[in-house]
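Input/output pair, single chain:
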Amino acid sequence: MSDIRQAQAAEESAPMQTGGAARTDGVLLTALRGLALVYVTLLVLTGVAILGVGALLGWRPYLVTSGSMAPAMRPGDVIVVEPAVPGKPYDVPTIITFRDPARGLVTHRVVAAEQAPNGEVRYTTKGDANPDAESGTVGQSELVGSVRYVVRDVGMPLHWAQHGRWGPFGAWAAGTLLAISLAVGLLRPRAAKESPS
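Output:
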């Protein structure tokens, strides 16, 4: 008799253990989907803040590629630049973006502004992390604009790709695709359970 009772007890406890494991898996999946939804939402909102708002105001985003302005901005950050207005001068210590013939786009802080004999204001700039100011000055024709805000680290995937760091880039891409898949699964209405026949 005791063997029969033990067998019955084992049969009764087995479905309960399976159900408990299924409930735990369901809770974990729901938590993962919730985190994925938060990540995707932040990704979309960041894109809107950088591209959407900037486009409405005529501001342009640029990727920071060097550490010359650390800690104010670091490689992988994105800066949003308001275009320069002819005749509107910048004060010390405004951060400006300008074109340099040898280096391309440069973003540095204004440390001095002087009016040239022809009336043009020319700027001496310096990277916060650099020991010395630039030897040359920046005039209106080189100016792109002034930095309105910095968005930390959002350009890291592009920075990795530009420097051939495909490991981190691939991990980010795979994680983002997985997060989008999980988030879409959370938003999609669940199919109605089939009634037992």
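The radius of gyration is 28 Å. Residues 191-195 have pLDDT under 50 and may be disordered.
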